[in-house]
Amino acid sequence: MPVFALLVISKAGSLIYHRTLPTSTSASTSSSGSQPATGTLGLPGTTSLTTNDYLVLAGTFHGVHAITKNVTPKFLANSASSSDHPPAPTTNGVTGKASSFRYPIPDAPVTGIESLESSFFKLTVFQSLTGTKFLLFTDPSMPNTDGLIRGIYDRFADHVCKNPFWHIDNPIRLDGWERALNQFLFRR
Amino acid sequence: MAKPPSSASTMYSSPTYTQGSRPSSSSNPSFAGAGLRVPTNRKTIYDRNLNRSRNAELSRASFAFLFMEMVTYAQKKIKSVSDFEKKLNEQGYPLGMKLLDLLLYRSSPAGSSSSSSTPAARPLRILPLLSLINNKLYTLLFSRPADSLEQDTADPSKYMIIDNTPLTNTYISVPKEMSQLSVAAFIAGIIEGVCDGAGFQCKVSAHNQGTDVWPNRTVFLVAFESEVMEREKELERQGVK
What we know:
The structure holds two protein chains of two kinds.
Chain A: E1 3-9, E2 15-20, H1 24-27, H2 51-70, E3 75-76, E4 101-102, E5 115-117, E6 122-127, E7 133-138, H3 145-160, H4 175-187
Antiparallel strand pairs in A: 1-2, 1-7, 3-4, 5-6, 6-7
Chain B: H1 5-12, E1 29-31, E2 37-39, H2 60-77, H3 81-107, H4 126-142, E3 148-151, E4 158-163, H5 185-197, E5 202-208, E6 218-224, H6 226-238
Antiparallel strand pairs in B: 1-2, 3-4, 4-6, 5-6
Helix pairs in contact in B: 3-5
């Protein structure tokens, strides 16, 4: 299964849910002797993280997300060269010129980091309107991560938000949510 | 409360035509009394045709959020799990009483839109009552019949209605410390209301018996009173169906 892990971060920046999913090779123990332990975020061959590590990771990410929202590059509105590369952040209106800066798509709301890719994993981030962030770590070749994260958000709205025993920004410890996630992530 | 008494009486009397006022064709709401808003043609919800909402559907999410608040409300006031179930049961009970009347009205020729239906008899025996609940009531509430009906072999006064996916439990996972609670106690209250309304005193409770395939499988245990069982025996003897 190319999905490695899911993290849910509350509006305040605390980790409310984390789950690493076993990679397909570790499911079948009859294969060659090397037991790839589900290590860092489920990636084989790395050391595993403790719960504390996940908490630190979530808090750090929350900060990074907020920072990236503020350093989203703006275009020089008058310039004709606003094609591929927006100007570097250091030229953000500090020069005192009369030209104005605007975002590439003026009407869309500014968001923080939305995806991060490396050769080992791809991180997709979805922030709901209420500020809850969903982080999904998948294989870099995985298509349609947007659809996946939408599906996860749907199940969150169903099994977590409609549950009277869960209060907002609490850690999620609900059977219904786990079952729905299992069905969604493993059935595809 | 300085309203003249005449306007107060128009609020509660039958909407036809007091003081020579004819209902206007517009339905703009106007204040007819202290807080109750009545449309200018004086037609309230009680005047609507009962079959108007026959095929109406409700959004599952709306019900889920409303029910979630009901559970939270009950949780604030109770001290033990059985009180919790009792509170939910009490909230469903009046629904059951009214649903019984609605079901029977809709299956009688006076109420149904199709002309070919036979008049529905009120259930006089236990089995017809339970089939009414399993089929008609469930179809009215959840668009599907209940999954099965069983009788307890050890105690013939206890019957079990089984539902694999009760609507109240779909989105609610009870925490471990309250694992005996089943929020389907609300549906149990509805069933109890129907049975009591039909003249069969009983107590209905909801028990969670999840299986792998159906983790929310719920058994509604219907325990009839001894008077009902005696009457059953007598009716059996007389051959009343």
